[in-house]
Design brief:
single chain; Glutaredoxin; globular; 36% helix; alpha+beta; 89 residues
């Protein structure tokens, strides 16, 4: 049975070009061998998210209990390592 897709959460803002760039770069890594899903969360809809992330956006997580994978710019190596770890686990 194939493993479930990894789910990434991208925290950003609707008017943030870095957020748009990170989402596009992440989607470009999509691969049939190790698919993933991405949820985009606008931090401005929740004061707690603004307090947590504010000027760090965009911020990418695969698991909110784990450290962020990257912020400001996509780290493809971190994403590939996350995907490889999920495939092995």
């Amino acid at each position: 049975m194939p493993a479930a897709p990894v789910h990434f959460t991208l925290y950003g803002r609707g008017y943030c070009h870095l957020c748009d760039d990170m989402l596009a770069a992440l989607n470009a890594l999509q691969d049939d061998a190790r698919p993933f899903t991405v949820e985009v969360v606008d931090v401005d809809v929740d004061a707690a998210l603004v307090a947590r992330f504010d000027e760090l956006v965009p911020v990418l997580f695969a698991d909110l209990a784990a450290p962020e994978l990257c912020h400001y710019f996509l780290d493809p190596a971190a994403v590939h390592a996350c995907l490889a770890g999920a495939a092995a686990g």
